[in-house]
Write a structure and sequence with these properties.
Layout: E1 9-14, E2 17-24, H1 34-46, E3 52-58, E4 76-80, E5 89-94, H2 103-109, E6 123-126, E7 144-148, E8 160-162, E9 167-169, H3 171-184, E10 192-197, H4 200-207, H5 209-213, E11 221-227, H6 242-254, H7 262-265, E12 287-292, H8 296-303, H9 315-319, H10 326-342, H11 344-347, E13 353-357, H12 368-371, E14 378-379, E15 382-383, H13 384-392, E16 399-401, E17 412-418
Parallel strand pairs: 2-17, 5-7, 5-10, 10-11, 11-12, 12-13, 13-16
Antiparallel strand pairs: 1-2, 3-4, 3-6, 4-7, 8-9, 14-15
Length: 419
């Protein structure tokens, strides 16, 4: 797993939108972890004077249920209480942060915030969809907003252990213990609820969407949102299947066969059922898919990782889309087409929502600049926060698919520079 050394953040307005320049040590990179793409939005926000900081709460009853992080520590969450018209509305945001696919990477993960609550920040900034200010988060600012921390390594789905390596794979138990905790804190009487998540958390929100709906009575309005969670089972630049092989390791090492959705595993192999393209058509709960058509994580780690590009032909393009050749852009347009094909049937359902923008980015809900700001990414003059709100509250149908790159000038592209 990546030991990413991300050093600097620079802002600049470019011809084709707004770019963030992230520096990292590529020699330390195997799979670029989405946490580092998120980290800059959070660290930038934390530096602002008026940003809400919310403390960490450990789930005290979780240990007795075996609902523990990879190292056996208690799982945790951050909760900012709702008030006024939002007092009985609940937003659960599932944290992202990659996966681990074998004993070595999982043992390493135990010494990080994604494998142990001992390493989690004691408080984090609530920005974007978690913000408590109406001007930054118009529809959800006064809801109960919870960020559930991610410390199991398999998108909250595992229920096994590796005793020899002293590894606990208890994501499914963590999910259940957390939901029980939130129900006891008042979510049981929710009038409205939204399960959300980014990256590995966006995949988790798809995997657990119908489970989440099942917690509530028929009187509660329940929907789900997946941000940057549409990880495609796509061929890499060498014709191999880098991400399928990687997900196969996650599924195999954590024994996910029995915890993945039955509606999928009844007719497909377990690894295929960790790919959302094989799940979304069968989800009964209304679901909103928010994704960039040129997802930075997938370009870095699935399509053009160094392992699939030994000659380094993709090196510059992988770091900076403006360095891609016409042939490379054509390959990435093919990936966009795969994305659109994967969600075609899903998009036909009236209850579902879509926002697929043609940006080189990853995770857009928790960062204020991409969620809702003066220069946020838009499709048809509608920012992501407005699109999600319109869909959640049934103000209008939202099926927004951008024109292909480079037509969108509102993007906040991620650009990587080697440290």
């Amino acid at each position: 797993m990546l030991i990413g050394i991300l050093i600097g953040l620079v802002f600049g307005n470019w011809v084709d939108g707004f770019e963030e320049i992230l520096s990292f040590n590529e020699t330390a990179m195997s799979f670029l972890d989405s946490e580092h793409m998120e980290a800059f939005g959070a660290s930038k926000a934390a530096g602002a004077s008026n940003v809400l900081m919310v403390g960490l709460t450990l789930i005290q009853g979780a240990g007795a249920k075996g609902a523990v992080c990879m190292d056996g520590t208690l799982p945790g969450y951050h909760w900012h209480r709702g008030y006024g018209s939002g007092a009985n509305s609940w937003l659960i945001q599932l944290e992202g942060g990659g996966w681990c696919n074998n004993v070595r990477t999982c043992v390493y993960r135990k010494t990080s915030r994604h494998g142990s609550s001992a390493y989690m920040e004691k408080e984090i900034a609530f920005t974007g969809i978690l913000s408590d200010k109406a001007e930054y988060n118009p529809d959800f600012y006064n809801w109960n907003r919870i960020k559930l921390r991610y410390c199991d390594g398999a998108s909250f789905t595992g229920d096994s252990e590796n005793q020899a390596a002293q590894l606990q794979f208890r994501g499914q138990r963590i999910w259940l213990a957390a939901m029980e905790e939130f129900m006891s804190k008042g979510m049981r009487s929710a009038k409205q609820a939204l399960l959300s998540g980014c990256s590995a958390g966006g995949l988790a929100s798809i995997l657990h969407c119908d489970e989440f709906r099942g917690l509530f009575s028929g009187n509660t309005k329940v929907k789900c949102l997946s941000d940057a969670g549409m990880f495609l089972d796509a061929a890499d630049v060498s014709g191999g299947r880098t991400l399928r092989n990687y997900f196969g390791g996650v599924v195999g090492s954590q024994g996910l066969k029995n915890t993945l959705p039955r509606v999928c595993t009844d007719h497909l192999d377990p690894t295929s059922c960790f790919f959302p393209q094989n799940l979304v058509d069968n989800i009964k709960t209304p679901l909103f898919i928010l994704n960039t058509a040129y997802d930075s994580w997938q370009i870095q780690s699935s399509l053009a990782p160094p392992s699939a590009d030994p000659s380094g032909y993709w090196h510059d393009c992988r770091l900076n889309h403006s360095k891609c050749s016409p042939a490379q852009i054509q390959f990435l347009q093919g990936f966009r087409n795969e994305m659109l094909n994967a969600i075609n049937r899903f998009s036909l359902s009236k209850q579902n929502g879509l926002f697929i923008n043609s940006c080189f980015a990853h995770c857009q809900t928790e960062r204020q600049d991409t969620w809702f700001a003066d220069n946020s990414p838009v499709i048809g003059n509608k920012a992501i926060a407005q699109a999600v709100g319109d869909w959640y509250f049934d103000r209008t149908s939202v099926k927004a698919i951008d024109c292909p790159y480079p037509c969108d000038k509102s993007c906040h592209h991620l650009v990587f520079r080697q440290a």
